[in-house]
Write a structure and sequence with these properties.
There is one protein chain. The protein is an alpha+beta fold. The chain has a domain of about 80 residues: Rossmann fold (3-Layer(aba) Sandwich). Helices cover about 35% and strands about 20% of the residues. It is built from six helices and four strands; from the N terminus they run αββαββαααα. The protein has a four-stranded antiparallel β-sheet, covered by helices on one side. Helix 5 packs across helix 6. The two termini are about 30 Å apart.
């Protein structure tokens, strides 16, 4: 991997803003949950969003993963603004590649299951594997990618 490729921005937000209306249908009041959030995620790098409870971390993640629409701003993925009108297939591709795990891991990931089990589900849901053998091989590849060895 070249230095240029490694430093390429793969996901970026520009001026991401979210206001939640309060006080009923005709009210002009709103809670300003996020204002002008800009983040750049580069290939091969890790970014942490840290803050107190209620500071907007989960809202930011929900906007980036398109679980809710922003009030304004842009979300750029692989050079394209994913908030602009796009074909359904492009939106599906984005959701396959950009996902989140909510703050409460016990509410999102069942601690009884091994990591491999949690990797199987999205592979099957997005039709990335066919059959038990291919599923097992793909999960083992993913675990190896992050330095985890599957149990024998």
């Amino acid at each position: 991997m070249s230095a240029t490729t490694e430093k390429a921005i793969i996901l970026e937000t520009r001026g991401l803003t979210k206001h939640f209306p309060i006080g009923g249908m005709f009210s002009k009041l709103s809670v300003h949950a996020l204002t002008d959030v800009s983040i750049a995620l580069r290939r091969g790098h890790v970014v942490a969003i840290v803050g107190e409870s209620g500071s907007g971390k989960s809202t930011t993640a929900r906007l980036i993963s398109r679980l809710m629409p922003p009030t304004s701003g842009e979300i750029i993925f692989e050079g394209k603004n994913v908030l602009e009108t796009e074909p359904r297939s492009a939106s599906m591709r984005y959701r396959e590649q950009v996902q989140m795990v909510f703050q409460d891991p016990f509410g999102s990931l069942n601690p009884v299951h091994q990591v491999g089990h949690h990797l199987e589900r999205p592979l099957k849901l997005h039709n990335k594997v066919h059959g038990k053998r291919e599923t097992k091989e793909r999960v083992e590849d993913l675990l190896a990618t992050v330095g985890l060895n599957p149990p024998a």
